[in-house]
Design goal:
The protein is an all-alpha fold. It has 2 domains: 55 residues, Arc Repressor Mutant, subunit A (Orthogonal Bundle); 134 residues, Orthogonal Bundle (Tetracycline Repressor, domain 2). It is built from 9 helices and no strands. The protein starts with 5 loop residues before the first helix and ends with a helix.
Length: 198
Amino acid sequence: MVPKTLRQEHTEHTRRALVDAATRLFAERGYADTSIDEVAGAARVTRGALYHHFASKQEIFTAVCDAVDGAVVARVREAAAGGGTGEQRVRRVLDAYFEASREPAYRAIVLTEAHVTVAREDGQRYTPAMFAAVNGLVLDLAEAGEISVEDPEMLGRLLCATLHEVASAIGGGARPSTSPATVEYAKKIICDMLFGGR
């Protein structure tokens, strides 16, 4: 493996500093109330350096959203990859996702700001990466004979929409601590939808 040059390391460090600074600011203030100059200042770089990496505030937000969402998608994929029955795998995914959905940066950026700031062609509130992870699990379960489904893509979309709505309702906002019983009820509904209430 060829070692990175000092310039490459500096470039990566600057980009990472910009994404980290923008993540903090977007999570605390929101996209509309955060300026390019504030992001540059928080990252301790010049405005010119910022524009060397990102053409616009929208482009920075997209990178932030991808990073924050990507970390949660990785946790979902890891939970889905373990052994056990289909229902056990799904419950692990739900636990991982709902735990992550309580994190302030994910709530503010992915659950709240992204559907307003990032125009998606399909108009969905959930991210394409999350859909790919959830739909992959649906396909695995169908191929293993754990669930019966005529349209895996539609089921994947229904699951993503359900996950997003439940995550938006738990933790934070006007309802800072939805009871564990409510979250368990949501998980039961999702498992019943997939496994027929077995």
